[in-house]
Specification:
Mean pLDDT: 93
Number of helices: 6
Number of domains: 1
Order of helices and strands: EHHEEEEHEEHEHEHEEEEE
Largest sheet: 6 strands, mixed
Strand content: 15-25%
Radius of gyration: 17 Å
Structural class: alpha+beta
Strand order of the largest sheet: 3-4-2-1-14-13
CATH architecture: 4-Layer Sandwich
CATH superfamily: Endonuclease/exonuclease/phosphatase
CATH topology: Deoxyribonuclease I, Chain A
Number of strands: 14
Length: 269
């Protein structure tokens, strides 16, 4: 049984100062996927955790974006981005050569092949800044889905985790009416998530919990976490071929250190 966690840490070095090693020791996950690391490599202190292979992807802009995977089992391969060789780590194998530099240049994607399944760790873009960034976000969504679907067409089983930067349904945020015209809950974003599920990807948390009031992100400026005025924008999705292997899905809302909290699944492979 694999325990896989995902967490937007909003700065790996920052969360290291807030008990990240204690968190790892207490939870003892088999795989940890991190987003918004703002780092190109592991801080020296992280090696104290022991027992993990570590993989990082960072963008062209320093201190921005970034994802990482800490894993006890060494993957068969790890790919950075969706396929543009300019943004691949030296010697890393590729699923194909059809990359798009627009979506591989910000260090948002790591794809780890474990043989029995392929794990996508993704920090999806935020579309609030401008219409241009919203367009970029929607294009990134489609680039991801095209990549995942190509693997599924080869018979591969898929696990997707990360910060999707969209709350899917009204029960996934505290104030849906007030945010109906805000990126992160726009009709076009929610419709894409409908399409994701229609294509055979399953929201694992909703397999076990249908209630509202469960969130993964809270605005720090307004002190929203104390009032639980939040958004569920962090997800684990699996291809329907893996659905029966998901034995639990959960939100660790009591874990502090970031404006997001960790989420996780238990997967019987």
């Amino acid at each position: 049984m694999l325990k896989i966690l995902s967490w937007n840490v909003n700065g790996l070095r920052a969360v290291m100062k807030k008990g990240f090693l204690d968190f790892l020791a207490a939870e003892s996950p088999d795989i940890v996927c991190l987003q918004e690391t703002k780092a190109s490599a592991a801080p020296i202190e992280l090696y104290q955790a022991g027992g993990y292979h570590m993989y990082f992807a960072s963008g062209e802009k320093k201190g921005y974006s970034g994802v990482a995977i800490l894993t006890r089992e060494e993957p068969v391969s790890v790919t950075r981005g969706f396929g543009d060789p300019r943004y691949d780590g030296e010697g890393d194998p590729r699923y194909d050569g059809e990359g798009d530099p627009r979506y591989d240049g910000e260090g948002r994607t790591l794809i780890a092949d474990y043989g029995k399944f392929v794990l996508f760790n993704i920090y999806f873009p935020n579309g609030k800044a401008s219409q241009q960034r919203l367009d970029y976000k929607m294009g990134f969504y489609d680039a991801f889905l095209d990549c995942a679907d190509r693997l599924r067409a080869q018979g591969r089983k898929i696990v997707v985790c990360g910060d999707l930067n969209t709350a899917h349904e009204e029960r996934d945020l505290a104030r849906p009416k007030e945010n109906a015209k805000v990126s992160g809950f726009l009709p076009v974003e929610r419709a894409w998530m409908d399409r994701l599920e229609a294509r055979g990807y399953v929201d694992t948390f909703r397999m076990f919990n249908q209630e509202g009031g469960h969130y993964t992100f809270w605005d720090t400026v307004t002190g929203a976490r104390a009032r639980n005025v939040g958004w569920r924008i962090d997800y684990f999705y699996v291809s329907d071929s893996l659905k029966d292997r998901v034995k639990d899905a959960f939100i660790l809302s009591g874990v502090m250190g970031s404006d997001h909290c960790p989420i996780g699944i238990r997967l019987d492979v």
